[in-house]
Design a protein that fits this description.
The complex is a heterodimer.
Chain A lengths: L9 E5 L4 H13 L2 E6 L7 E2 L2 E4 L2 H8 L3 E4 L3 H12 L5 E4 L6 H13 L3 E3 L5 E4 L3 E4 L8 E8 L3 H12 L4 E6 L10 H10 L5 E7 L4 H12 L4 E6 L23 H10 L4 E2 L4 H7 L1
Parallel strand pairs in A: 1-2, 1-5, 2-4, 5-6, 6-7, 10-11, 10-12, 12-13, 13-14
Antiparallel strand pairs in A: 3-4, 8-9, 8-11
Chain B lengths: L1 E2 L1 H10 L8 E3 L2 H8 L6 E5 L12 E4 L5 H9 L2 E2 L2 E2 L3 E5 L5 E10 L4 E7 L6 H7 L4 E6 L9 H12 L2 H20 L2 E11 L5 E3 L3 E4 L8 H4 L9 H8 L3 E4 L4 E5 L2 H13 L6 E4 L6 H12 L6 E8 L4 H14 L6 E7 L2 H8 L5 E2 L3 H11 L4
Parallel strand pairs in B: 15-17, 17-18, 18-19
Antiparallel strand pairs in B: 1-13, 2-7, 3-4, 3-7, 5-6, 8-9, 8-11, 9-10, 11-12, 11-13, 14-16
Helix pairs in contact in B: 2-3, 5-6, 9-13, 10-11, 11-12
Classes of the chains: A alpha/beta, B alpha+beta.
């Protein structure tokens, strides 16, 4: 088992004919992901990488029975693509695109949620259930099928922690990059219950950063509702206040959303926080 | 991106949100000339991207025409929260019968746009929110409804805020226009503190604070022109144009990393081992060699930098591209400091091979690299 995606997941790719979309579609297929088609408005009826292209997500879902759409379209067109997904019977949308205007995300999130469609991202690396299904842009070979669930706001920092888990032989059940934007479709607290219920996940790592209160809310949830051990890592201890640190959502707005404040809240809730990346494995095993 | 009060008020007037007319001056003489025909008293306000202008002496009411010049001179001599005052805004002082707080922002926790109101205007809203949370009014607005907010949906909020039916109606009109301005310009915050009732019982925006979503700026070239270049770091803006995300800090260890989260974690790790980062720098994904050269130049511009740490975890970014960029930099630029390089991930072997035989110090892990950097940076 794993959460959200596995061997049976059927995936379509929005923006499959673009440079990033076609490259990562090929990578996903190589990994064994069941990509059943793609969507590029105006190119319906053509094929790419032997997969059929459709004009809309609803057509693609009707023809292929896809469960998940992964979106690589440029920021300018992201809202249209997200609303297109909201207008279909897809179950989950994974939005890789970086730089989508906040109000576009807000509107698309509302439309998707109304339809009961889960949104992951935007501005995220996607998610992977190692050995089963990879949806996104993460390098495949650092992953190992295992028992640790991982949820992270970052991309490359996640790879760094995954490598530690894999090198230690622990491996991962599912790794989810939830994205670095202020408005994201799925937060820690939306995904933690799935790991708690997943028989193949034994422990969970959450990777947070400055900005917002999601880690604090996650800490309360973990303390009150989770039996499985959870370990955290928090980036941005040295970040100056009031500055956006690369991720649009990574900004210290007040005294509550600093890394130090979040670390304190996590530790109060009994969640060990690694001070450096190499401590994560030790805390999981300890 | 932030704009000054006078720029926000110009946008208010464009959207028919009532705000007193004002003039802007950069010198005492300009202030005197422009305020000449304005009725007294006038209020002179520092235009600077910092809160607490009043407390810092940056807001003065002047009743004597002869005082406009000297008062402007004094305000232009101020530095508020490290920012020198270069512009003042002058407007007729208005009689205030009532003052309230009104803002519209995106609540990331609730994933909604939300109006915040408080019947006590002119106060620090964060303080009120902590000390008397019951005084804070909230009205959540779905993103899709901002452009055509109905009066009905605002009525309860506006009535609680103003108490009086006529004033509530005027406030509803302000809220509808604020929402339209917010969505049409991709704002991140519109704050009116205070929104007042003047001597003629009109609801007027006496102050205006606006900031914009950086991700939305691509569709608003008109807003880019409002950017106050004097209050921004030229290097940081230049970095953005080259696709780099860069923030200068006080330390002496230059950092080059791919990915924002890893860049922060790299700074934290350096600090953990006793070093002090000189900057935050994310070279972004799919980094081509030219971006690496630009990053080298930016980092080495800082004379305090004693050592550089390059930490790359290849994914989309290919280690051989980074290695090519490092080699090109070493050819093009005089690099007077030791460089520690840690390359892992996509095309790691190719990248390392390219760097063989150079004077670079190779590190296997982030922590190894950070420890070495701290040592060379002179950590205790």
């Amino acid at each position: 088992m794993s959460i959200l995606i596995d061997d049976n997941t059927k995936v379509i790719v929005q923006g499959i004919t673009g440079r990033d979309g076609s490259f990562h579609t090929e990578q996903m297929i190589q990994y064994g992901t069941n990509v059943v088609g793609g969507v590029t408005p105006g190119k319906g009826g053509q094929t790419i990488l032997d997969k059929p292209i459709f004009d809309s997500v609803s057509e693609a879902v009707a023809e292929t029975g896809a469960d998940v759409s992964v979106m690589y379209v440029p920021a300018k067109f992201a809202k249209g693509a997200m609303l297109d997904a909201a207008n279909s019977d897809i179950k989950m949308l994974v939005a890789i695109t970086e730089g989508v205007p906040t109000l576009d995300v807000l509107e698309a999130y509302e439309a998707l949620t109304t339809k009961g469609i889960r949104l992951i991202g935007p501005n995220c690396p996607g998610l992977i259930s190692p050995g089963k299904c990879k949806i996104g842009i993460m390098p495949a070979d650092i992953h190992l099928q295992g028992k640790v669930g991982l949820i992270s706001r970052s991309g490359t920092l996640t790879y760094e922690i995954v490598k530690e888990l894999t090198d230690a032989g622990l491996g991962e059940s599912t790794c989810i990059g939830i994205g670095g934007d202020p408005i994201i479709g799925s937060k820690f607290v939306d995904l933690l219950p799935l790991f708690e219920d997943d028989p193949d996940t034994e422990s969970v790592v959450i990777v947070g950063e400055i900005g917002g209160q999601d880690e604090v809310i996650a800490a309360q949830y973990i303390r009150d509702h989770m039996k499985k051990p959870v370990v955290a890592f928090m980036a941005g201890v040295t970040a100056p206040p009031g500055r956006t640190m690369g991720h649009a959502g990574a900004i210290v707005g007040g005294e509550d959303d600093t890394a130090a404040a979040k670390i304190a809240k996590l530790e109060e809730a009994g969640i060990p926080v690694a001070k450096v990346i190499s401590e994560v494995v030790g805390l999981l095993q300890g | 991106m932030k704009v000054h009060e006078y720029q926000a008020k110009a946008l208010f007037r464009e959207y028919d949100i009532p705000a007193p007319l004002d003039v802007v001056a950069h010198t005492a003489a300009e202030a005197e000339a422009k305020a000449k025909d304005m009725g007294l008293p006038v209020v002179i306000k520092a235009q600077v991207h910092a809160g607490g202008r009043g407390k810092a002496g940056g807001v003065k009411v002047v009743s004597d025409a002869a005082e406009v010049g000297p008062t402007t001179e004094r305000i232009l001599g101020l530095t508020i929260k490290d920012l020198p005052v270069r512009i003042v805004m002058i407007a007729p002082a208005v009689e205030i019968k009532t003052e309230v707080y009104l803002s519209l922002l995106v609540d990331r926790g609730e994933r909604k746009a939300v109006f915040i109101g408080c019947a006590d205007g002119g106060v620090e809203i964060e303080v009120t929110a902590k000390e008397s949370p019951e005084k804070i009014l909230r009205l959540e607005v779905p993103g899709a409804q901002l452009a055509f907010l109905t009066a009905d949906s605002c009525k309860e909020f506006a009535t609680k805020l103003m108490g009086d039916a006529d004033l509530a109606d005027q406030t509803i009109a302000v809220m509808q226009k604020v929402a339209k301005l917010f969505v049409e310009k991709d704002a991140a915050l519109i704050e009116i503190n205070p929104l007042i009732v003047d001597g003629d019982d009109k609801v007027v925006a006496l102050d205006a604070k606006m900031s914009f979503d950086a991700n939305g700026l691509f569709r608003h070239p008109e807003l880019e022109e409002l950017r106050d270049m004097d209050s921004e770091d030229a290097d940081e803006l230049g970095a953005k144009e080259k696709g780099l995300s860069f923030i200068r800090l006080d330390g002496n260890i230059g950092c080059m990393v791919n990915g924002a989260g890893l860049a922060m974690a790299t700074m934290d790790t350096i600090k953990h081992f006793g070093g002090d980062p000189a900057n935050f720098l994310d070279v972004g994904g799919s980094s081509n060699p030219e971006k690496v050269v630009a990053a080298f130049k930016l980092i080495l511009k800082d004379p305090d930098v004693k050592v550089m740490l390059i930490n790359i975890f290849g994914g989309i970014t290919r280690c051989d591209d980074i290695a090519k960029g490092i080699l090109a930099s070493l050819e093009q630029i005089d690099v007077p400091v030791p460089i520690i390089v840690r390359l892992v991930g996509t095309n790691e072997a190719e990248g390392r091979k390219l760097l063989e035989g150079t004077k670079l110090i190779s590190a296997e892990t982030l922590e190894g690299g950070a420890t070495k950097a701290a040592e060379l940076g002179g950590a205790a």
